[in-house]
Amino acid sequence: MFSCRLTIVDIKEIIGTGSKFSAASNEAVKYRKHITMIFNGNTDSVITRFERDGFISEKIVYRYLFTDFNYQWTTKKNTDDTTKIMNGNIGYVNMGMLMPKQVNKVMDELKKN
User: Fold this and answer.
1) Cα 77 off chain centre by
2) 93: which strand partners?
3) What b/e string do you get for 44-81 counting C-beta neighbours within 10 Å, with b at 16 or more?
4) What is the Cα–Cα distance from 1 to 98, expressed in whole angstroms?
5) Bigger pLDDT: 64 vs 12
6) Residues 6 or more apart in contact with residue 53 via CB below 8 angstroms
7) Of 38-47, 60-69, 82-91, which one has max mean pLDDT?
8) Spatial distance between the Cα atoms of 53 and 3, rounded to a whole number of angstroms
9) pTM
10) Can you spell out the DSSP letters for 18-37?
């Protein structure tokens, strides 16, 4: 038997409030889809209590604002990173790095070769 509680609320109760809006076929998928609902909140931490086979474990999960991580967004992607001219005049385009607004510029660069 496995059960999980957050502070004083059973996770089944939290998922039950939003389960009619979830396109999930089983309980494990519902937990995965509702992870943000489960761990987000207006306090700086949440106490989780797990019970498995009669053994109870309590942990404190701390919540952080995204701004606390000082993440630096990379907004500028050069076409130098997305295109390369290889041996034999072969053009290579890294489609994972290519932004839609760069397509015309990249095509112009490849036409030159």
Assistant:
1) 22
2) 83
3) eebebbeeeeeeeeeeeeeeeeeeeeeeeeeeeeebee
4) 49
5) 64
6) 1
7) 60-69
8) 9
9) 0.45
10) HGGG---SSHHHHHHHTHHH
In the block, which residue shows the tokens 């509680």? Answer: 5
Alpha carbon distance 60, 64 (integer Å)? 13
User: Within 10 Å of residue 32's Cβ, how many Cβ atoms?
Assistant: 10
| Nearest in space to 36 (alpha carbons), one of 3, 67, 66 | 66
Residues 6 or more apart whose CB falls under 8 angstroms from that of 38 comprise: 6, 11, 14, 15, 31
SS3 content of the chain, % helix, strand, coil (to 5): 40, 25, 35
3-state secondary structure of 8: coil
Here the tokens at position 13 are: 């109760």
